[in-house]
Amino acid sequence: MLRVCLKGANSAARKCLCGNGVPLHPLQQCRSYTSGGSGSSAGKIVAASVLTVGGGVGGTILYANWDPKFRANVEKSIPYSDQVFGLALGPAAPPPVINKPRKVEPVQISSMSEMWKDSKQPKAKEVEKKAEQPDAEGPPAPAPQETLEGEACVFVAMILSAEQNVLSVFCIPLAAAKCTECEHEPAVKERPEGEVAARLAEQDKAEQDLLTSLSSNLEDALGSTAKVTLQAIGAQEAALQAIAQHTRQLREAMEAEAPPDKKSTQWRVLEDALSERSRSVDEAGAAVLKAKAELDKLRGVIDGAKHLKIAAARPSILAAEENLHSMVVDLDSVVTRVQTAQSEAKIVSQYSELVNEAKAQFQKELNSITPEIQANWKGLTGKLTQDDLNSLIAHAHRRIDQMNRELAEQRVREQIHIDSALEQQKLEDKKALEVAVSTALEHNREQMRLEQEKKVEETREVMEAEMRTQLRRQAAAHTDHLRDVLKVQEQELRSEAEEILNSSLMEKETEYRRLTQDQLDSFTLDMNAAYARLKGMEEAIDSHVIAEEEARKAHQLWLSVEALNYTLKTAALNDPTEPLEGAVQAIKESCAEDEFAQALATALPSESLSRGVYSEASLRARFYAIRQLARRVALIDETRNSLYQYFLSYLQAMLLFEKAQEAPPAKLSAEDLDTFKLLSYAAYSLEHGDLELAAKLVNQLKGESRRVAQDWLKEARLTLETKQVVSLLSAYANAVGLGTTMAP
Amino acid sequence: MANEHGQKWDRCLADSAVKIATGLGVGIVFSVLFFKRRTWPVAFGSGVGLGMGYSNCQQDFKSPYQLHGHRVKVSKSHTS
């Protein structure tokens, strides 16, 4: 085909070139071009095919680069194209991970979790929360998440199926969630239920642990804070007590007019009280600081607990917060009390200082006036002189005047002082008020918040309880409905089952009856059959005996016939067989009552009995000699029998050539009765083993040829007769034998 | 029966030979005795012998076909 193409291209090229070639020497050029023309046209064809193939491949690669689906298709359909693409374009980008439906899941799960928050399964919610986190991380734990969610879905589905009316709305997103999950995570298997339950239990336990730890933390913190606060409060109380005592004692010391020795003890006691008070105040301050630190710590712990957002811990958190708040309030109140006491004490101390100062002044004055008088002047009334007394009285009067003046001054100043003091007091009151207001506000706010939370908690609980009751009602209604439906179904199924049972029972009964009847029938049949068979067998045996006898006889006959056959074979080449007398005698003996055999046995020619017969082979051999002779005397018959005729006949035999063997026709015509023809026919039939036909043909000879062949003919006749009889006998023996062997 | 032919020929030839020889001899004798050693009695004698032999031979060969007719006298008493 390539050559054809080339030739075509050649001729076309030649034509083309010759047509459009240079006009000057077209033929030459054509000639010169023809050698190259074919080459260039072939080259053109090759180039064109290369271009086409390259263009196709390059186009495929470019398009595959642009369209990855096409690339995938080509890679699927054409083997090894992926390698080519890999070489040319680099590995194909993996298909984009389908994340969107998985992103949908957390939302739906959270909705589920929201729903579960409201239901009575906070543990599952914790589970979901926990499940959310690995989901947010990514696919590393798709299986547990999937199974968890699957299980959760199953749980929810179970619950929902039980409460279809109320929560049918929720079924749809859940079902959708389940479907999306199933769609987009087909390869993930579900975890076994036990594992999920174990995981749930684990998470429950973890949550419980957390809760307990949290509550223990809270309790510890609360306890410690309470202790510290109590300590602080106690310290503050002690401080208060100390301050009050000190103040009292100071006042007592100020006002009481005790004798000097008691006074010193009083002052000592006062000093002790003062030290006591300072110590207790310091202690109280330190305790307050500690308490404040503890309270802050407690607040921190509470905030941390709040961040964990465990619903069960909320009441404890609330209680802790309340405790905290009360502690803070107590602490503040105690601190304020201490502060007021301290301010009172300051006043009293100031008063006492003033009194001490006045006393000191008076003492100084007294000393200046009466230096020898001791401090304890109350008991010195007997020792004093008149002058002293007068000076003392004058001093006292002067002092009284001074005091009065001071008093007046003081009264004037009092007002100013009172105003300023009032103002100061106002300021301080304002400050204190602000502080108190702020703290009270703080406390109130805290209180309100706590109350609000408490209320919220209460309402939540109430709502939950209500929802629970509703759900319970729904569940009860559903269970009633289910019970009714089940009852109805049970009835139906029972009736169906009874029906089926009855029908099958009837069937089985009829079957049984039929089977028994069949059995009886078959048994009867079998018995009859057996009896018949027995009878048949007996008959068969009897007939068999007869048949055996017949067979034996037939066998004997056959044996004797075989012996006869065998004697026929004893013919040597040119000698006759043994005389068949013995064998025939044996046959006659063996079939004494068989008429047919007897007849046949007697039908044998006596010559064969006495002398035996010639075999076919010997007859065949003899025939050729006979034939020669017959040929030679073919012309001699009754009319022509002179020696001259003999000479002529010899001449004819010498000169006449006929076929050595010629197939005899089915019907002999007149011209077939020629000696030579007859002889050739006879030869043919002899060669083909047909002695009978040969004998028949030889029988047609006429004249001297006939006379010459007479001997041979006689022998042939004998042989044929004997053979016929023997074959008849053997056939008969075979038939008889066959018949006997075929007997039942 | 096949041998008969051969036998006949044997006899025939033998007979002919003898006759020819005899004729020859007689001819020779006669030629010598009576006819002054001429050859014609020899030829004559052998010819006679040959002829006799030939005739015998022929007769022998013809013998099976020879019909010997008998005249049967039919008495008048039988035909009536």
Automatic annotation (TrEMBL), chain A:
<feature type="compositionally biased region" description="Basic and acidic residues">
    <location>
        <begin position="115"/>
        <end position="133"/>
    </location>
</feature>
<feature type="coiled-coil region">
    <location>
        <begin position="386"/>
        <end position="413"/>
    </location>
</feature>
<comment type="subunit">
    <text>Component of the mitochondrial contact site and cristae organizing system (MICOS) complex.</text>
</comment>
<dbReference type="Pfam" id="PF09731">
    <property type="entry name" value="Mitofilin"/>
</dbReference>
<keyword id="KW-0472">Membrane</keyword>
<feature type="region of interest" description="Disordered">
    <location>
        <begin position="111"/>
        <end position="145"/>
    </location>
</feature>
<keyword id="KW-0999">Mitochondrion inner membrane</keyword>
<keyword id="KW-0496">Mitochondrion</keyword>
<comment type="function">
    <text>Component of the MICOS complex, a large protein complex of the mitochondrial inner membrane that plays crucial roles in the maintenance of crista junctions, inner membrane architecture, and formation of contact sites to the outer membrane.</text>
</comment>
<dbReference type="GO" id="GO:0042407">
    <property type="term" value="P:cristae formation"/>
</dbReference>
<keyword id="KW-0175">Coiled coil</keyword>
<dbReference type="InterPro" id="IPR019133">
    <property type="entry name" value="MIC60"/>
</dbReference>
<dbReference type="GO" id="GO:0061617">
    <property type="term" value="C:MICOS complex"/>
</dbReference>
<keyword id="KW-1133">Transmembrane helix</keyword>
<keyword id="KW-0812">Transmembrane</keyword>
<protein>
    <recommendedName>
        <fullName>MICOS complex subunit MIC60</fullName>
    </recommendedName>
</protein>
<comment type="similarity">
    <text>Belongs to the MICOS complex subunit Mic60 family.</text>
</comment>
TrEMBL record, chain B:
<keyword id="KW-0472">Membrane</keyword>
<dbReference type="InterPro" id="IPR007512">
    <property type="entry name" value="Mic10"/>
</dbReference>
<comment type="subunit">
    <text>Component of the mitochondrial contact site and cristae organizing system (MICOS) complex.</text>
</comment>
<comment type="function">
    <text>Component of the MICOS complex, a large protein complex of the mitochondrial inner membrane that plays crucial roles in the maintenance of crista junctions, inner membrane architecture, and formation of contact sites to the outer membrane.</text>
</comment>
<protein>
    <recommendedName>
        <fullName>MICOS complex subunit MIC10</fullName>
    </recommendedName>
</protein>
<keyword id="KW-0812">Transmembrane</keyword>
<keyword id="KW-0496">Mitochondrion</keyword>
<feature type="transmembrane region" description="Helical">
    <location>
        <begin position="16"/>
        <end position="35"/>
    </location>
</feature>
<keyword id="KW-0999">Mitochondrion inner membrane</keyword>
<dbReference type="Pfam" id="PF04418">
    <property type="entry name" value="DUF543"/>
</dbReference>
<dbReference type="GO" id="GO:0061617">
    <property type="term" value="C:MICOS complex"/>
</dbReference>
<comment type="similarity">
    <text>Belongs to the MICOS complex subunit Mic10 family.</text>
</comment>
<keyword id="KW-1133">Transmembrane helix</keyword>
